[in-house]
Here is the input.
Amino acid sequence: MKSMTQSPLQMARSSYQPKLPSALKGNVVLKEGANTESVADQSEIKQLFPNTYGMPLITFEPGDKKEYTTVGVGVILSGGQAPGGHNVISGLYDGLKALNPNNKLYGFLGGPIGLVDHEYVELDEEIVNEYRNTGGFDIIGSGRTKLEEEWQYEKGAEICKKLGINAIVIIGGDDSNTNACVLAEYYLQKKTGIQVIGCPKTIDGDLKNELIETSFGFDTACKVYSELIGNIQRDANSAKKYWHFIRLMGRSASHITLECALQSQPNICIVSEEVEAKNMTLNDVVEDIVKVIVHRSTYGLNFGTILIPEGLIEFIPAMKTLIAELNELLAHNEDFNALNTDDEKREYVKGLLTPDSHQVYRSLPKGIAKQLTLDRDPHGNVQVSLIETEKLLIEMVAKRLAQLKANSIYKGKFSAINHFFGYEGRCAIPSNFDADYTYSLGYTASVLISEGKTGYMSSVRNLTEPASEWIAGGVPITMMMNMERRHGKMKPVIQKALVLLDGAPFKYFEKYREHWADERSSYIYPGPIQYYGPTEVCDQPTRTLLLEQGK
Here is the structure.
């Protein structure tokens, strides 16, 4: 758990004191707003969550000093890593100790499974100090176990009773906070006295709404990726001979790809949500890329950058239909599994597909078609996240350019390099914005707990203003929920936030992308994250957040 050595930057960052909203710097009073309702499916959500549905919004304001009873709190890191997780824990720890020095904080090890298996550690000042302002989730580890079964809830209640834990804080994305909502409802229903508070985490940026302006880690991850893209663009502009196809993390939404485009101004950026809205085929996407490559080649510019969201394949309607058919046809299909060669399997699949999907399947490069049938999860479904979309596009673009060259339409040279940026951004040292934001989220959670609240997500808003003007409070998790089909059943889940095509960030991108694609050099080189220096260099949030807030 404890590192033996630290770099000079680590040592310097350990002494950084994150900034807090003014309301959290002293005594706090809670102000309750109007009662809330879910974003959709109100009657179904209300029926499933009778004890936590319709609770009011909460904001914090400066107030008179009050005495808080001693509480024990357990914290869980859930899902994939995101920069700032350690600061949520340090903000939670500091907040609890400020409200009552006798408060205790326990960390459940390895994610939600730690709650179920009773694996934990008491987090004291020495441990917390070791991890302040650092990236990663290694202070207690994370995991993807879902808290969905009653026996899990009961096992959690057992260890909470044993340790004197009054509240659990779950730091995670939409699925993890959905689990937090279910857990809060169950513990209220059973009168266990255990509160549950969520914190919004995901670098993908798809856990947000009007009251959760951004999820933590998104800012840092996008700055890391944008630095790498900027470095590649400087290299491309120097070597002048490669097209760089760059796939970026974010399977369910294109927020990362769009933010990196706003920060670096690539020649081409694909936004999955636009592809779906326009009912584009894979060939349509390829043709759009080819047009830019051909145009730039007429000016002798046989190089450029293309940003591709990880989940693109699932947003192409025809591909989505094909994948759904394959999932239905091949899951636990003994006849298919008994075939020996790839060609036999390919022909078998062709014979089962509908005419439209058959046509799409035939158009795919053999390597990708093979991937669609061989790389399957334990349920027999296509593992879409394993499809290397950037390589698929390079192969299809090269083939199309060869056709154009044969007809003397294209006279340039095409050499491509592929990249995938994912894990590079998940555990980076958090930016000042994320360090401040996550610390504030943790501190906010400590106040919600001490005030006896449950079923809330920690919320810090007004994030484009200085941290002292941020607005802290709580949002009922049920407010964000709707019903969706998961594994054949309708389930309550937090609604994912996709890129809005009528939103300010996409509209800005739409306005300028043709200029970025043309023969004029328009790259931006963001450079590395800066931690010390002028606030306009060190403390700025994402371009997405600034545009959404009209800045």
The longest helix spans residues 218-239.
